[in-house]
Q: What sequence folds into this?
DNA sequence: TATTGTTATACTCTATAACTATA
DNA sequence: TATAGTTATAGAGTATAACAATA
């Protein structure tokens, strides 16, 4: 049995691309890019967080994150404030406009995504969640193994 | 039960990102980008194909594809030849150097990817493949539903 | 010395549309 | 008229490294 994992890789890539295509079609109608939406969604219902933490949650590296946050600042959706506890740190938070946008589009986006799941049972969802979690763990373990080698 | 699908979306995104991070770490050591590797892998063991077909298989749109193929041509890894049957069509194929590179790196990449699957059983793989296929189908059906609406 | 964030560089990909040359 | 591919445009994300301010 050689490379029986190949169909899994192919299906993973295709499932993700189908998700991404479906999701981003909606996001682009909101005049946001997927990374910008990710940041708005991450900052929603919080009082803000340092750029470092925002980068960890969205998997955007710091050099890139500065640019994405700049563009959201130009749109008046987020703002930077100095951290009270660390002079090196900038806290990013939604502006009132950003909060209003979040309150409007986040539920709408969930409703849009829900349309894709109407044919799947609760059992299906649990099974998928477990399988995907194991897959993620497998890649992370392999990467960690490579690092120490 | 509201939005029970959300963990599935999160796990899908994280599993894909873990896969992408692991896979592309190897690809970058080969001095290729992921789209470039995708093209080399698609052209390997073929006699070439029109840009249109290459775009369909790699999910790269035609305007972008011209640029990616240009960069691979600069590296002497692929070449364009005129289609014998359709004067509008260009066929892209690996050069001898491209074929040599494919023969060298494709098995190496499979071996690298296999390291991530050592802990998963054949049953696991079948289950994952089925779940991912259903997920992809769900997104594609939702997108098709939106289009006709 | 180490860390947070910005800046700079150079590239790669993306979306979109206009354009050409064939069909 | 429609299709294959190129070109043009403008943006947006990526990797990387050097840098300033602060810890």
A:
């Amino acid at each position: 049995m050689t490379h029986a994992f190949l169909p899994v890789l192919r299906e993973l890539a295709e499932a993700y691309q189908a998700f991404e295509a479906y999701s981003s079609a909606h996001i682009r109608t909101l005049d946001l890019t997927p990374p910008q939406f990710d940041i708005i969604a991450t900052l929603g219902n919080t009082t803000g967080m340092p750029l470092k933490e925002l980068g960890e949650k969205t998997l955007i590296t710091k050099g890139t994150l500065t640019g994405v946050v700049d563009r959201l600042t130009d749109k008046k959706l987020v703002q930077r404030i100095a951290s009270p506890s660390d002079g090196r740190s900038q806290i990013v938070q939604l502006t009132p406009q950003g909060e209003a946008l979040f309150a409007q589009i986040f539920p709408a986006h969930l409703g849009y995504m829900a349309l894709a799941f109407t044919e799947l049972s609760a059992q299906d969802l649990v099974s998928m969640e477990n399988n995907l979690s194991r897959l993620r763990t497998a890649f992370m373990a392999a990467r960690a193994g490579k690092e120490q080698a």
Remarks:
- The first helix of chain A runs from residue 6 to 29.
- Residues 28, 50-52, 62-63, 65-66, 83, 86-90 of chain A lie near DNA strand C (CB under 10 Å from a C1').
- Chain A has a mean pLDDT of 92.
- Chain A touches chain B through 49 residues (CB under 8 Å).
